[in-house]
Amino acid sequence: GEEAASPNLLAPLIESFETLDPETGFMNPLGLAYTVLSRRSRETKALKRLSKIIQNIVKNRENPENPGNPIHDTLSLMMSKYSIDQPENLYEQVASTVALLQIASNTN
Questions:
Q1: Which pTM was predicted?
Q2: Rounded CA gap, 37 and 41, in Å?
Q3: Crossing angle of helices 41-62 and 74-85, rounded to 10°
Q4: pLDDT digits (tens, 9 = 90+) for 48-96
Q5: Measuring CA to CA, how many Å separate 51 from each of 13, 21, 27, 92, 98?
């Protein structure tokens, strides 16, 4: 959503997506070696950071002090689907899907 373009969220989002993007292994072989040796801890941290960002966006949208029209975008659709199918891992599942969509959009 448009919230992701806010200055306080954009930089952490970019950092998370760059960490998760498999293309970086070709540009920085040492980074790929670190990822393998650390058992992908960088990617795990990036997904957790992405999950927290999504959770904050959703909570801000649901804030009663922020009345307005409900936002109907890809994030809200994913939240609806995963809240029914896998409520126990809701934000992690949405974060994984957002990351995959971002990586896929960069392959073109």
A1: 0.69
A2: 9
A3: 100
A4: 899 999 998 888 888 777 666 677 788 888 888 888 766 678 898 888 8
A5: 10, 16, 26, 5, 9
